[in-house]
Amino acid sequence: MPHNADDATPPPRGCNGKIGPGDASGEQPEERLDSASADDSPNKHLNDTTVADYLREHPDFLVRHPELIETLVPPERRLDGAAGGVVLDLHRFMLERLRGEMRGLRDSHDFLVTTGRSNMSAQARIHEAVLAILSAPTFERLIETVTDDLAILLDIDVATLCVERRAEDIDASEFEGGEIKVRGLHRVDVGTVTRLLGPKRRLLLREEIAGDIDVFGPMAGLVRSDALIRLSISPVTPPALLALGARQVGAFHPQQGSELLEFLARSLEITVRAWLDLPD
């Protein structure tokens, strides 16, 4: 019987006339994401249960990593009260307080470290200044060390040495515009030291002031903070004053430790007394 082309059944659609792995129509399935790519993640097995199990097995985890306390968010639980009311759980508040204490301790630690470094720097500067005073080969060089070098050594802007004049001290040949020819050494009016320090005060630290022209001379306009230290050189000498000035407000302040400045002043007193062969 001859073959009729019209009776031929068309081959099913698909690759090479074959039914593919899709549905019965032979259509290809939609491409699926490769699950292996998700398995490449380092956290593929990390979930709440895994983390909880790890913490149960390592109860000291937060002890070893206390910084995480500030990262974790504590739960805010509400408990039913015995009388049917609502009682807030205090755990959250306790944790917040602990965090605050930790921040305070950290700030205190940072402050102590900063203060310690500053004190070490100040101590080194004072020691260097004292060595310079003791090393002066002449009395004139000693005065120049105080009035010229001290400001550089102490990282301030001006240092002066003031001595009250007495009536018998006034000699025009010694003065040039009210100042002894040794630069930086000022003769001030009787009572100036008491006016500035009072009758007994040894040292005065002022945080914010306008520089005293009697003390700092032409540099007074630069001074915004100062340290004034009484010098008791000898019973036979007039009152004297070591003045340190800085342009930065707060360079000296009342809360500042004074032991190093006292040591500097005491060293200067002894050295001047030795050079002038004065009784102590």
TrEMBL record:
Sequence segments annotated as region (Disordered): 1-47
Gene3D superfamilies registered for this protein in UniProt: 3.30.450.40
Transmembrane segments: none
Organism: Limibacillus halophilus
InterPro entries: DUF484, GAF-like_dom_sf
Superkingdom of this protein's organism: Bacteria
Stored Pfam families: DUF484
Name of this protein: DUF484 family protein
